[in-house]
Request: fold
Amino acid sequence: MKSSAGRTTMTVGELAGRFGLGTHVLRHWEGVGLLHPERDGAGRRRYDEGDAARVAAVLRAKAAGLSLDAIRRTLDCGSPAERRDRLERHRDLLRDRIARLQASLTLTEHALDCPVALSPGRVPG
Reply:
């Protein structure tokens, strides 16, 4: 890590390594507008702790099921109220998906416990 204008900065490799990511991931995220690294005099990307915090936020949001586009829109939205609204909508979608998956699991477990459903040549009905 080097200091640039009194700030500690990292190369793309250093930041990627910090999170166990490939450098191509950070370059892709830059391409879709999730990251905006500064450039040094030679045009190389330089990341600071703010960029590292943003990478951590992107990873958490991905783990929560948001697409990269949804993450960008959420992180870059204008106000905390708008961010909250977006996250509430995502939460509602997740709850709906969980309910549908739970219903599928219940049906599968019922079929596993039902001897008629497992009998060869029999169609449950």
The chain has six helices and four strands. The two ends are 67 Å apart (CA to CA). The mean pLDDT is 89.
